[in-house]
Amino acid sequence: MIGVYIFISLVILQRIVEVIIANRNAKWIKRQGGYEVGRDHYKYIVLLHTFFFISLLTEVSLSRPSFTSWVIAPFVIFLLAQICRVWALSSLGPFWNTRIMVLPGAKVIAKGPYRYLRHPNYVIVSIEILLLPVIFQAYWTAFIFSVLNVLILSLRIKIEEQALLETTNYEETFDAVSRFVPRYEK
C-alpha cells in the first residue's frame, strides 16, 4: 500500500511543480503586456484538483485496492499521458499556464500536439482524472471528478477561446484543427 501512496504523492508533486512553472510564466506574460481572463472560475479548477486528490487518497485508503493484471492497461495509458503532458507544456513554453493568460497580438503556438488538437492538455488532464483512480480501483473518484472536470472545462474552454479569438490569430491558426479528437485527412 505504501507504493500506492508514493505514486500518488509523485503525481501531486508534479502538479505542485507545474503550478510553480505556471506562476513564473504568468509573471513573464504580464511583463510582456499580457493579462489574465476568466479569473472567476479558476478557483473552482483549483478546488476540483485539490478535492480530486483528497477523494482519491480517501477512497484508496478505505477500499485498499488489489492489483490485478488488467490495471496494467490504464497504468500504461496514464504514463503515456504524462509523456504527452510534457510534450504539450514544453510546446507552449512560457505561454503555458494553469490560468487563462493572453498576450494581445501574440501568434498562437501550433506546434507539438497543438498541430493536431486545439486543447491537447485538456484531453490529457481528462485522461488522468479518469485513469489515475481506475488504476487503484477508486471508481467513485474517477466517475465524479470526470463529470466535474467536463463541466468546468466546458466553461473554461469557452472563455479561453473567446479571449484568444479577440486578441490573437487563434481563428486562422486553428480553423482546421479539432478541439479534442485529431482529424485524419487523406
From TrEMBL:
Record's bilayer topology term: Multi-pass membrane protein
Where in the cell is the protein located? Membrane
Q: Which GO terms describe its molecular function?
A: protein C-terminal S-isoprenylcysteine carboxyl O-methyltransferase activity
Keyword field contains Membrane: yes
What's the chief localization of this chain? membrane
**Cross-referenced InterPro entries, in alphabetical order?**
ICMT_MeTrfase, Metal_cation-efflux_comp
What is one term from the GO cellular component aspect held by the record? membrane
Where does the chain cross the membrane?
A: 6-23, 44-62, 68-88, 129-152
The reply to whether Membrane figures as a keyword in the UniProt entry is yes
Keyword field: Membrane, Methyltransferase, Transferase, Transmembrane, Transmembrane helix
What are the GO BP annotations of this UniProt entry? methylation
Record-linked Pfam families: ICMT
PANTHER family in the cross-refs: BLL3993 PROTEIN
Which protein, by its recorded name, is this?
A: Isoprenylcysteine carboxyl methyltransferase
Species? Anaerobacillus alkaliphilus
